[in-house]
Amino acid sequence: MLEFKQRHLLGIQNLDVSDIMTIMDTAESLAEISTREVKKVPTLRGKTVVNLFFEPSTRTRSSFELAAKRLSADIINFSQQTSSVVKGETLKDTVLNLEAMNPDAIIIRHSCSGAPYFVSTFCRSHIINAGDGSHEHPTQALLDAFTIRQQKKSFKNLRVVIVGDILHSRVARSNVFLLQKVGAQVTLVGPPPLLPAEFENFGAQISYDLDRALEGADVIMMLRIQKERQEANFFPSIREYRNLYCLTEKRYSLANKDAIIMHPGPINRGVEISSEMADSMKSVILKQVENGISIRMAVLYLLLGGKERETAD
Amino acid sequence: MDEKIKARVMDAGKIKRSLDRMTTEILERNRNLKNLVIVGIRTRGIYLGKRISQQIKELEKIDIPLGVLDITLYRDDFAELETQHMVQKTEIDFPISKKDILLVDDVLFTGRTIRAAMDSLFDLGRPQSIQLLVLIDRGHRELPIRADYMGKVLPTSRREIVQVKLMEIDETDEVLITEPAKLE
Lengths: 313, 184
Hints:
heterodimer; A: about 325 residues; alpha/beta; Rossmann fold; five-stranded parallel β-sheet; four-stranded parallel β-sheet; disordered C terminus; B: about 180 residues; three-stranded antiparallel β-sheet; 4 helices; 8 strands
């Protein structure tokens, strides 16, 4: 028997280390299903899962969709463009209408930080946060940690460098929370306007110099730099950003031997990461995508299994 | 939970003798050993399966592939459990299509585990045949399932618990009948 008492997955901050390990161990067992000829087990037969995406997303949405399907759950997709949100319906009304159709879980992505939490306050369904504003993206952090564990075996004293637009990145936040909990050391790197010093309060180290931060790094996680940010004057030009923060072969050689390269995607080749690095043997970017399905299967399995529980929090 | 030991029905010697006998029966029945594979059901089925494959190797000098099956994802009581079971790995790294599978478990009780195991195997391929080996058949079947090879038929009451202990994880070889302590 296992102890997984969470009713929702709203963020990494709500999880303790044993929850995180349970999710990863479950994902490890479930990974084998995706390698079968018949990629399906009957476990969640009869359960209904709703993908409710208020922001564009293809990979996270389809990763959740495949995860649900491989466990035999039924899944329906709602996106902002096709829902009544365009007709002026509020988030609460949209969710209440979906709830009336008796789903078991709602996977939600929203541009407002805290939207999944808000929804969980009045919902019967299990709520899974698939990214909310610049707050959290818990399944991304879990799949990143799962990938790191596969490659490096242990988190103890592992040096992880996260590079890019930290300010707007929910991936960075969730990763900082998770990696702190499991005992890794995190250094955040980026141009000063995109790297708030407050992150030191979360226990991460801050650096504006990528070359120095890379010395002794075991894991290098590059974040996508959105071109719109340049228009908003967060940094002077893409060219300058590339000169200072693009992961090139030369920079990679500063890191520890066997350091792995990660990226949550989609990547901008030649901006935050050079093509050679993205395709190199040390890149685990596609492994992350593959692991994403196992992690999301584990989350669905753990939340939807067993008798309906009373709210734990 | 406190439990009372009611009887010790098998010791190391008895377990070994019944595995020896069952191995002979397997060899008698399976003329084409090259087509035989063993799949042990987690947890103790794995070790029983290993012992049988070693026996066959000693007698016939042939390596029988050995796989591990975790049936958690195929349980029929998934929605009723208070807490879920931890899913563990299924490790069958050989094709099972057209093979004769020897499915191994420690105790045959309601038959539901075997039903789940067979469903799971059929998702992995279409075997030629499935034979079932159990160390203990304790009765109380709820499904039309029987074992092809049995170590011991043990009449029990539903309240009783049959515990198979194996050296590999329990540091002793024995089979016990226990009963949960009465609630006051």
